[in-house]
Structures are given as C-alpha cells and as structure tokens.
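haha ok so turns out i had the wrong file open the whole time. this is the CORRECT one, sorry everyone. sequence first:
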Amino acid sequence: MDKGYNISDLSEGTVFADALFRVRTVTPRQEGTKQPKLKLTLTDGTGSCAATLWEVPDALARDLLCGATRYVRVSGTVQSGKYAGDVQVSTLVAAPEPTDLTPFLPRLAPGHGDFQKRFNALVGSVGFPPLFALLKQLFQPHLKPFHAAFAAQSRHHAYPGGLLQHTVEVAEMCQKACAVYPELKHDLLLCGALLHDFGKLTELDSCGDYTETGRLIGHIGEGAYRIRRAAEDTPGLPPTLMQELIHLILSHHGLLEHGSPIKPATPEAHVLTHCDNISAKMASHREAAEKLGKAGGRYSRVGSETIYVSDATVQNLDLSGKNVRLDASVADPLQTPPITGTVRLPLLGWVAAGSAGQGSESADEFCDVVMPPGGADFLLRVVGDSMTGAGIFERDLLFVRKMDNDPRPGQIVVASLPDGASAVVKRFSLDAANGAPCLISENKGYATIPVTEEVRIQGLVVHLQREMG
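then structure:
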C-alpha cells in the first residue's frame, strides 16, 4: 500500500497528489448557497484536516454521504489565509479499504495506562455487591476494546482510548460530587457514570465510525438495553434500583433534542448529565488550545459554540492552586455538624504516603488543633508522595478517627502492615478483577497492597492540616 502524504506532512501551500486518507465526516452543501458541494474531514494516524469539493460526481457523493466509501485517494492544495490548513481538493476517487489499518489509527493518548488504573480504582470503589457484580459482568469480557475505543466520531475524545478517558473523567467528577452532597447514592451514581457510554462499544467501530447499530439505535438505547439484560441476571439487585440505573443511562444527555429519550429526574441523573457535559466541553477546549497554539490564534469554533483560548500572558501564570488545594476526598461527608474549639490530640509519628513508614500507638507529642467535623482520635505526619492525587502531600498533618466497622470503598485509611512497625495511608478499594479488598495509591508509581489478615486498618482519614510557606 502506497499511502503517499500523511496529514502531518501537510502545511500551507503544500501541493500533493494521490494521498490515501480515511473519510471521517461528510457534510453536503445547503441548497441555495454558494458553498462547496461537499465538506469532508480527512484523517489518518497522524491527524485530521478539513477538505472541500466543489465538483464531485453524484454517485461518489452518494457513496460518501452514506458511508459506502470510507477511503479516498486525494490530490489537492493546502490553503492559507482564512481557511489555513484546509485542503482544496482537485481530484478525489474512491479507494478500497486497506488490509492494514494501522497507518489510519491514531496512537493511544499519553497517560493511557494511568487511566486504566484509575478506571480499575473507580470500579473498586463501588461497594454495593450487586452493582459491583454488574460492572464486572459487563466490563470483563470487553476490557480490551473498551480501553481502545473512541468516545465520539469527531466532537470530543475522538481517538483510541478516548472512551476510557472520558468515562474516568466523568466518574471521578461524580465521585467528587458525592463528597459535597452526601445525599447522593454514591454506588448508584458511580455505576451509572462508569456505564453511561457503554453502548458506544457497538455504536462506533475501531476507527471511530458509526456502525449499523450506531445509525439505527444509538449508544443510549443500545447501552440501556444491554445493561438492563445484564442487570436482570444479577442476583440481589432490587428492581427499583435497576430502574434508577437505567434512568441514568437514558437521561444522561439531559435534553430530548440532545438524544435522551427522557429528561433527568433524580439527583444522580442531574449530576451525571452535568459531569458528562463538563468532560466533553473540557476536551473540546483542550483540543482547540492545541490547534490554536500551533496556529497562534485565540478563538475557535466547535459546532455553534465559540471557544476562547487565553493568551500566553495568562497561560504562563501559576493559577493551579496546587500549593494550597485540599482534596475533598479526605473529608468524611457523612458526619454530624462541626465540633469547633481547640483540643489536644496525640501525634503518633509519621505515616508513609509511599512505601511503608514508621507508625506507633504511643504519642511522640501532642498538638493543639481545631477539631474537624465528627472529631478525630489521633494525628499522623505524612512522608512521601503516593497520595498526591488525593491532595495529600509531604508533611501534611492527618486527622485520623478510629473505626468500629470495615471501611467503605473509596475511603482514605491508615493501615499497619504485617511487620507491625510500618504504617501507610492509602485509599481502600476492591480489586476490579476478583473483588478482593486492597489499598491503592493516588500516584501511578506505587503498587497496590492486598488487604490480608495481617494488614490492620488503624483508622479513617477525616481531615488534614497543611503548613503554609
């Protein structure tokens, strides 16, 4: 296969001939306008570009519009000025689908492995056994295609691994919302967030184009059907809970005109709808910023919306807030109103946010602190960086409350390890593969710790205090 030019080879003024591209989208000319007969999005593994055809045979136009022609040989010129980067097509002919599609598939996005770990941790944070079993039943046979799937044909996360990234972003935002609004049903919302786009596995093919299922049913209907069938076979799942889960799937686009057959009617459905939209909008802004960064512009359009990208003066400022940001996950949302006032708590040494560290059940010293909501029993000082993703940093002072019951998935705990002298701070979770309890880091450089009989949970992290400066 002689592919000729790649998209990445094209720059303003480039004249090229007989280059093989994949057609991603086709838009026909509106009647009564002086627009090109067809506007195309051409893609390969190196990128995408817009192309315009002023003249094209009717038969070829029909094949392009209905998807019968997916690959084309193109000759043309890359424009400059107002339409910089767009290809003005001089000739375009249909081409057979190549036997090797590798040159036409974008590579997995950087950090893909990290998203896989975060996905597994999110699945493990669903503590209600029937919902956890449902997630395993649906995802385990499809993990490989799910990890490589597109989230959309063109609008957002339109690349291999995009569906995984979008799902993780939505689910993590939903998890944060549960810390702010404790009345939300955490396990129901997380399950819905992880499954909300499950139907895209059959809506889009491996190249991100619509399948027959995608054209005739769509991912919302397909996903609701497949999830309901699996839920009906899940022991212990109440029918009313199954209905609320299916409602999350059916309503997550928010409006009827956006493709949802029903509007959100539960708190969890409203949260999922907005988190889904935030992930899509942020992806559009990221992609626009990347394109405008190369072109030097500050405005872009996605559909009917205008996107503004800050200039270098603002972008170069440190506005991340990382020096003072506290992660809401270290606050227990299910507590009584704050108990205020300064009290003296024992500081039992330091705890490792990394490899095992030294802990003790006898106080090295006492500290006068303001008691957090619900109270705390002792303090520990953090050493290491394995929990930075949860907003826990070196030298933070952790407020720990002793626990009478087992921790819930997703809670941050302090645990002593089998040697009896080492203590770590980690997030309690359930292994996505077998449901076994484990301790996970919020930094991909650290391994998961299985919770065996020798591992003892010392307490729940409910608050932290950070020294400034």
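Confidence is low (pLDDT under 50) at residues 323-340, 355-362.
again sry for the mixup
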